[in-house]
Amino acid sequence: xxxxxxxxxxxxxxxxxxxxxxxxxxxxxxxxxxxxxxxxxxxxxxxxxxxxxxxxxxxxxxxxxxxxxxxxxxxxxxxxxxxxxxxxxxxxxxxxxxxxxxxxxxxxxxxxxxxxxxxxxxxxxxxxxxxxxxxxxxxxxxxxxxxxxxxxxxxxxxxxxxxxxxxxxxxxxxxxxxxxxxxxxxxxxxxxxxxxxxxxxxxxxxxxxxxxxxxxxxxxxxxxxxxxxxxxxxxxxxxxxxxxxxxxxxxxxxxxxxxxxxxxxxxxxxxxxxxxxxxxxxxxxxxxxxxxxxxxxxxxxxxxxxxxxxxxxxxxxxxxxxxxxxxxxxxxxxxxxxxxxxxxxxxxxxxxxxxxxxxxxx
Length: 362
Hints:
42% of the residues lie in helices and 19% in strands. The chain is an alpha/beta fold. The strands form three sheets. It has a six-stranded parallel beta sheet with strand order 10-9-8-11-12-13, with helices on both faces. β2 and β3 form a beta hairpin. The model has no long low-confidence stretch (mean pLDDT 89).
């Protein structure tokens, strides 16, 4: 296998300097952790704002210090793989220039499609992309947006899923109810309001029975507004807010539910849908960049973005076809393993790494 190392600049806002982390993030100490599969070198720094040029120097200076420590301990790597062009890609560009090591970028950011990259950041982004050996986008929609900043080819590879962790639990039984699970950061973009309002409308019009329940995991700025929507729709006995969940709790919720639904208004990929599918569950997602590339009628529903009627139709169909979807759980899981499992992902990356190394030798 490949030897993997990670440079990690752990950032924390200066506005939190008096919450017990003052010394920890001011010490400038380099920390090293080693496991069988990964060597990590980390430094903790205060997050700063400012103009792109200043931030570029700030991040690069700290990263190069970490990189020199990495070389001292483990030797010079063959390839640098940066996730997100800004700021990891910026750091990779600077290291590449100083140490003559090729780099590639995997981009996950929704900033492209939301028009958030402007001015000097556009120039910085183009410089980083154009000097990389390979560029990967996690969805075809994101790849199209990235192409506005570079003429280089964008390879599409979705994020990997830990299918050894997210599994089907055949012991779970919930025959008397229909449980819908939703998970994410509670913001307007994630579409929890559409989901709550849709359920409210279905109950009011008696289109679904009262044994349907919605469990929402996550925290965020929309929490109080969403609680108001629950009250306004008379869903106090139907909707439960679970708060922040750890990975084990997420798995248990996915294994227990009959359906995972997250009608986001924007998603660059959507790992959470695949995690639910790895537990054998059908999913409902909006027709945005990532979900439209990974979900088909054999594993769930793609609905029109921000369309409550379309969501209601999908919910009714999923509830009516509860037994049908239960019978397909192994098929749904196998779809994820084959296309998005860690082995499939690693094989794709290894092929790209070999291409980069062959090119650098020539």
